[in-house]
Automatic annotation (TrEMBL):
The chain crosses the membrane at residues 18-38, 59-78, 158-179. This is ABC transporter ATP-binding protein. Its main location: membrane. InterPro entries: AAA+_ATPase (IPR003593), ABC1_TM_dom (IPR011527), ABC1_TM_sf (IPR036640), ABC_transporter-like_ATP-bd (IPR003439), ABC_transporter-like_CS (IPR017871), P-loop_NTPase (IPR027417), Type_1_exporter (IPR039421). One of its GO terms (molecular function) is ATP binding.
Length: 575
């Protein structure tokens, strides 16, 4: 997303919280006013002291206390209101981006590393603070302070005031140059941070794999390389920032020295009082900071823009068509699913070629074939996760991937790898149907044979599972996944049968549970067990992205050599 896009995205937030912005602006303007009053205070007090007016000095010291209290109040509330406002907007942006992310097509997650997505959704939004608060205000505050101060200083000594203004534009040019370089470097630095997060993520999720394949050294090297890369950009960024700060402060010091020197001359000549010189020097920063400060603001804005570009790139991704408003929700399946001349490829390699398949209501269809033959892809196309490049997938009389309707309520999908969310055992089942009652959850747990082992967990149904919770065995996870499916009472069941070897009792229980789940449903099973295959109404044999044959077990075993050989290997593999 470019700068225009970022501003366009942020405007509604700024409009929504205009009152907070206005209040901070008023407080900042009061702060500028207070600076002037403080300069006047210094001038009057010093001149009174030089003139030996003790009474005036005492009076001024009292008013100094009032000034300090006012300064404290203005400072405190400016910072608090600004910080609260920025944090609130960042919170809302994070929620908006996450909600958008949840609606993206599966291909987005395929294309991007998890660490990168996490970095965009969190770190990069945090990096946007500059354009949501402080830097925006400073963009107004600095010129306002400069204008007001210039008018006041001109009344003290206009020659000196104009001279001090000369060095300003130099600082602006410097800031513009440094800002551009710093923005570019900042983007690279944020990308490097995302690389670090990806590597950590891979190490956490693949920890047991990493340990068993002795990959510690490899990951250590990979991590060191990503850290080195981030360090490179951090150092580069620090050097540019240091060069910028040094240049800015040199310009600031030069301005101070020139004005002090000239001011001292005016005092010696008698055209300026000592108090006026002190007031002048105390306000000088207000005159020069707009230039040096604006450059700093500019570089900060560049950094925040770089973070915004990365974070809001998620927003430029098109959501999956099923989330476009006004889709009809389909809850009834009345006759048939048909795949007509389907072709599909993930990248350039064709994964599915010329698929034609019909599944009638109430049928149990087993999809079999060697690994990588396209079984899961076929199912993912039916679930609308990807769209075919050619051909049509129809449910009853409507094309699924035209997305005029949302077909998801028709399906229950039990994947091969049953995922546990970091939540209680009860809620893990409830993900199958969020509006189910405790009784329904218990029934589903009993039907899936989950109840027995859940009761034995430390806190029963309230035991935390998943990440940083209790771990379950492969079979227990499958039972939880089946319990979810029992809760979602749908007409079409899609099962990716687990290949992991289960103990005999678990295997029997899961088979029994699946049988019960299938009652009254149209079922598509990516089958790996001989019993499942033999009992199916129709077996679809896949190889290298094509359907090589389909029919009953009896038909295929006597007519299709490929199936015969495949079946043989399955039988020998399971004995
Ligand atoms: N998200 C993806 N991006 C790119 N290629 C993919 C993706 N998913 C699968 N593939 C490729 O598509 C081909 C078919 O994969 P698919 O998972 O459909 O096969 P499968 O028959 O279900 O295999 P298995 O029995 O091992 O699960 C494989 O070559 C695989 O590498």
């Amino acid at each position: 997303m470019d700068s225009k896009g970022i501003i366009h995205y942020l405007l509604p937030y700024i409009k929504k919280y205009w009152a907070a912005y206005f209040l901070v602006f008023l407080l900042l303007a009061s702060g500028v006013g207070l600076d002037l009053v403080f300069a006047m205070f210094l001038k009057t007090t010093t001149d009174a002291a030089v003139n030996g007016d003790l009474q005036k000095v005492q009076l001024m010291l009292l008013s100094g206390i009032v000034l300090m209290i006012c300064g404290f109040i203005i400072n405190y509330f400016t910072k608090v209101i600004n910080a609260k406002n920025v944090d609130r907007i960042k919170k809302e942006i994070k929620i908006d981006l996450f909600n958008h992310f949840l609606r993206l097509p599966l291909s987005y997650v395929d294309r991007n590393r998890s660490g990168d997505i996490i970095a965009r959704l969190n770190n990069d939004v945090n990096g946007m603070s500059g354009i949501l608060g402080n830097d925006i205000f400073n963009l107004f505050r600095h010129p306002l302070a400069a204008a007001v101060t210039f008018v006041y200083l001109s009344t003290i000594n206009w020659v000196l005031a104009i001279l001090c203004l000369f060095l300003g534009p130099l600082a602006v040019v410097t800031g513009y140059f440094f800002g551009k370089v710093i923005r570019k470097n900042s983007k690279k630095q944020q990308e490097a941070v995302a690389d670090i997060q990806s590597t950590i993520n891979d190490s956490i999720f693949g920890f047991s794999l990493l340990r068993s394949f002795q990959l510690e050294q490899h990951f250590s090297k990979k991590y060191t390389a990503t850290i080195d890369n981030a360090y490179h950009y951090e150092v580069k960024g620090a050097k540019w920032s240091a060069a910028f700060n040094a240049t800015s402060s040199t310009i600031g010091s030069a301005t101070s020295m020139i004005s002090l020197g000239l001011g001292a001359l005016f005092v010696v000549k008698g055209s300026m009082t000592v108090g006026e010189l002190i007031a002048f020097v105390s306000l000088l920063s207000n005159l020069t900071t707009p230039f040096t400060g604006l450059s700093a603001v500019w570089t900060n804005i560049q950094k925040a823009m770089a973070a915004g570009e990365r974070a809001l790139e998620i927003k430029s991704e098109q959501v999956h068509p099923v989330f476009i408003q006004g889709r009809r929700v389909i809850e009834n399946f009345t006759s048939m699913i048909s795949f007509q001349d389907i072709n599909f490829s993930y990248n350039d390699v064709e994964t599915l070629k010329g698929i034609n398949l019909e599944i009638n209501i109430g049928e149990t269809v087993a999809i079999v074939g060697p690994s990588g033959s396209g079984k899961s892809t076929l199912v993912k196309l039916l679930l609308g996760m990807y769209s075919p490049h050619n051909g049509k997938i129809m449910i009853d009389n409507e094309v699924v991937h035209h997305f005029q309707s949302d077909f998801r309520p028709l399906f229950s999908y039990v994947p091969q790898e049953s995922l546990l969310f970091s939540d209680s055992a009860k809620n893990n089942i409830k993900y199958g149907n969020l509006i189910s009652s405790d009784d329904e959850i218990l029934t589903a747990a009993k039907l899936s044979y989950s109840d027995q082992f859940i009761q034995l967990l430390e806190d029963g149904y309230d035991t935390k599972l998943g990440e940083r919770g209790t771990s379950l065995s492969g079979g227990q996870r499958q039972k939880i996944a089946l319990a979810r499916a029992f809760l979602k009472d749908v007409p079409i069941l899609i099962l990716d049968e687990a290949t992991s070897s289960l103990d005999y009792v678990s295997e029997l229980q899961i088979r029994q549970s699946v049988q019960e789940l299938m009652v009254g449903k149209t079922t598509i099973i990516i089958a790996h067990r001989v019993e499942t295959i033999k009992n199916a109404d129709k077996i679809v044999v896949m190889n290298e992205g094509t359907i090589v044959d389909q029919g009953t077990h009896e038909h295929l075993i006597s007519n299709n050599l490929f199936y015969q050989q495949f079946y043989e290997t399955m039988v020998t593999g399971q004995t």
